[in-house]
Write a structure and sequence with these properties.
The protein is mainly β and about 200 residues long. The protein is built from one helix and nine strands.
Length: about 200
């Protein structure tokens, strides 16, 4: 049996409550221990006091439904209505939600929650140093807006896909040396007027 108390037992009808079913439920009708992986449905993704637990509803091999709060693997995002994959480790007292099964319902777009914030005064900056103490990046508030400085002599910006820069206007300048554009396909320059020199 599960170490956690089963919140509700339902025979056939999901809408019935425990009180309505007490006369029909015997000790032999209690849910079976989980064996191997099984699929359940998340009924509530916000535990009132514990983080990382969701309430899952599932059926055992006899068709008896039960629900309880189960822990999730770290960094797994589970939402109400998701179908989840649950496994019972042999050396752990309760089942664990290990994954979300896609393809059953459209999930609403997740909202970005506010994360850590650094507030800078006019004369302060945020810096990133290498392990050996070399300063790599500096961010500060300039007179015309935020400034990001890459402080090494040679910088590579590597992106596996397409790179886009969108701004009201774009200025490219080389204080010393040339500006080179290398492409393995056509180079397209579009504009109302293209000025050379």
């Amino acid at each position: 049996m599960f170490n956690q108390e089963v919140d509700e037992i339902v025979c056939g009808d999901r809408g019935s409550s425990v009180d309505e079913l007490i006369p029909a439920v015997s000790v032999q009708q209690r849910p079976e221990p989980a064996r191997g992986p099984f699929v359940g449905e998340c009924e509530d993704a916000d535990h009132p006091t514990l983080a990382g637990r969701v309430r899952v509803l599932w059926q055992d091999s006899r068709g008896l439904c039960c629900r309880t709060w189960l822990p999730c693997v770290h960094s797994l995002t589970v939402r109400k209505g998701d179908r989840v994959l649950v496994e019972q480790p042999s050396n752990w007292p309760e089942p664990i939600v290990v994954g979300v099964i896609d393809g059953f319902a459209m999930r609403p777009a997740s909202q970005l929650l506010p994360g850590p914030t650094v507030t800078l005064k006019k004369d302060e900056s945020v810096c990133v140093d290498s392990r050996d103490g070399q300063r790599l990046i500096e961010i500060y508030q300039g007179d015309d807006g935020p400034v990001v400085r890459l402080l090494t002599d040679d910088v590579n910006l590597e992106i596996p896909g397409r790179f886009r820069v969108n701004a009201h206007s774009v200025d490219l300048g080389a204080a010393r040396g040339e500006v080179r554009i290398v492409a393995h396909d056509d180079v397209v320059v579009e504009g109302k007027t293209v000025k050379l020199n």
